[in-house]
Amino acid sequence: MPKLPYRFLTVVVSLLFVVMFFFDILDLLLEVGHLLLEVLELLFEVFEFLLDEIVEHLFHTDKSTSQIIVFYIILLLFSLFAFWFKRKLPRMFRKLRTGWCEFWGKTGDDFLDFWQPLTLLNKTLWVSGTLTFLYLLSFLLF
To answer: Over the stretch 57-91, which tens digit does the pLDDT of each residue have?
Structure first.
């Protein structure tokens, strides 16, 4: 019997882990995302406050005038970032698509290298074992 490929085994175990702990993983991802958004908002507030104080000190303006100047500075910075991101986006998608195709092509080849030399009995055992496992897993999830 051929050896199970490491990549294929990693993908299968990861998928089973996600299926078994779907709601826990979803809750963890939402909590981490919420924490990151709070940290980003806090960093933005600190940046805005510091920029406001710098503008107020350099140009000797009152609070409302410095807030207007800071708004336009932040709008300029956001516009420059959006322009840069628009230029980089096609290249990032191309790299992502290439990496995705390479990964799944290699994983599919590893699976075929494992599956093709199996006898009919071993293939039947693998399929029935997998279906039995998924059936028993359904009791745990539902």
So the answer is: 999 999 999 999 999 999 999 999 999 999 999 99
Q: What are 79-85's contacts with CB under 8 Å, separation 24+?
A: none
CA distances 75 to 78, 79, 109, 132, Å, are: 5, 6, 49, 58
Q: Are 52 and 71 in contact (CB under 8 A)?
A: no
- Nearest CA to 7 out of 107, 98, 104 is that of 107
| pTM strictly above 0.70 | no
Task: Give the integer Cα–Cα distance in Å for 5 and 107.
Answer: 8
Q: What percent of the chain has pLDDT over 90?
A: 57
Q: Do residues 55 and 66 make contact, with C-beta atoms less than 8 angstroms apart?
A: yes
State the Cα–Cα distance between residues 57 and 51, nearest whole angstrom: 10
